[in-house]
Design goal:
Blueprint lengths: L10 H24 L10 H13 L19 E9 L2 E9 L10 H5 L6 E8 L7 E5 L7 H7 L2 H6 L3 E5 L24 H24 L5 E6 L1 H12 L6 E4 L6 H4 L12 H11 L16 E6 L7 H11 L4 E4 L10 H13 L9
Parallel strand pairs: 4-5, 4-6, 6-7, 7-8, 8-9
Antiparallel strand pairs: 1-2, 2-3, 3-5
Length: 362
């Protein structure tokens, strides 16, 4: 399937892209307005610089692939909830994460969040074994299964004969850090070391989730992610080829826009030298630093040209660097998409091409 977009949008589409961008701008303006009222971190420059220096001194900023590790064996897991779902059932699987923060200066704090010591999979299964499985990765501050069920159209995939699972990222849903004020702990421009460890655990636990599903009988597992989930999908398929495919919907590719360290409110002045070190650690895990382990025909990218939440320029750069041919650029922004149906058409066509759906399933 060769779905390279035409050279560029026409005048009408550019207007609609701008309109979609306006909605994103309004969405992003809320944290900008609230930022001056947020308390600054209680940390000294010296302590923060030591935390940041760890990733540079260990060579991770220069060779970021060395930062990531996977569990050596399938994590211990159990089905803690189950209920009927159509002609199968919906299961909640809990497993031990086993992740330990790489940075010794953060290790105690990172490990203090008890709820985050366990990973979770929500699994919609026919229960007869040997079903190809689509593993879904939610976006930032999402992960509630009912919302994810709607976002990923789980019912449609299930009725097409697939098993479906939802991966819960660190510090999301049942793994959340606690009060509402800490719901955004995964992405913190004023704590780049903590965010780096969150992404590290995300890769570690996602690999563990694959191992669990394979042990449950899934013969093939494809990975789809939206927004933050798209970021982690791109990164994951750059670290391992365990996934049968990687599909990214309106993906983030580089967190420097709109949540870069320049937006952080720190209790001390940051000079140019320190700012550059912070930026290197913040961008250490960007998919732009990697090459995919999967053949490009197993990669799908769907993005919106007017997206300001997950800026389109980074997505286009990633597609060009990786040589992605299965790419579809939609009209609108992150939230307001004017030809949204094209996303579904591209997704289901991709599933048919990869042998996950029969031609009559759409």
């Amino acid at each position: 399937m060769n779905n390279e977009p035409r050279v560029g949008p026409d005048a009408g589409e550019r207007i609609l892209d701008m309109a979609g961008g306006v909605v994103d701008w309004l969405f992003l303006s809320v944290p900008r307005v609230a930022a001056p009222f947020r308390a600054k971190r209680k940390i000294s420059r010296e302590e923060y610089e030591r935390q940041v220096d760890f990733y540079i001194d260990c060579g991770y900023a220069d060779r970021p692939e060395n930062f990531f590790t996977f569990p050596a064996s399938t994590p211990a897991s159990s089905i803690i909830e189950r209920r009927p779902y159509h002609d199968g059932e919906c299961q909640l699987v809990r497993y031990e994460s086993g992740y330990v923060a790489k940075n010794p200066l953060l290790r105690e704090r990172y490990g203090s969040y008890d709820a985050n010591r366990y990973g979770y999979l929500v699994r919609w299964t026919h229960g007869d074994g040997r079903r190809k499985t689509v593993l879904c990765h939610h976006g930032y501050m999402l992960g509630e299964p009912r919302q994810a069920n709607r976002m990923f159209r789980v019912g449609r995939l299930f009725s097409g004969g697939l098993d479906v699972a939802l991966f819960i990222a660190p510090f999301h849903w049942k793994r959340s850090a606690g009060p509402l004020s800490q719901r955004g702990i995964y992405l913190q421009p004023d704590d780049v070391a903590m965010t780096c460890e969150c992404v590290g655990q995300n890769m570690h636990d996602l690999y563990g989730a694959f191992r669990i599903l394979l042990d449950m009988g899934a013969p093939e597992i494809g990975l789809i992610g939206a927004s933050l989930g798209g970021y982690n999908t791109a990164l994951f398929i750059s670290l391992t080829d365990i996934a049968s495919f990687g599909a990214m919907m309106v993906p983030a590719v580089n967190f420097s826009l709109p949540l870069g360290p320049d937006t952080a409110r720190l209790p001390f002045a940051v000079d140019g030298r320190f700012r550059e070190k912070i930026r290197r650690v913040w961008e250490l895990h960007s998919p732009l630093n990697f090459r995919p382990r999967l053949p490009v025909e197993k990669i799908l990218v769907v993005a919106s040209r007017g997206d300001l939440v997950c800026p389109f320029g980074y997505v286009r750069e990633l597609c060009e660097r990786w040589g992605v041919r299965n790419r579809h650029f939609l009209t609108g922004g992150h939230w307001l998409i004017f030809n949204r149906e094209e996303r579904g058409r591209a997704w289901y066509a991709f599933l048919r091409e990869r042998g996950f759906l029969e031609p009559a399933a759409e």
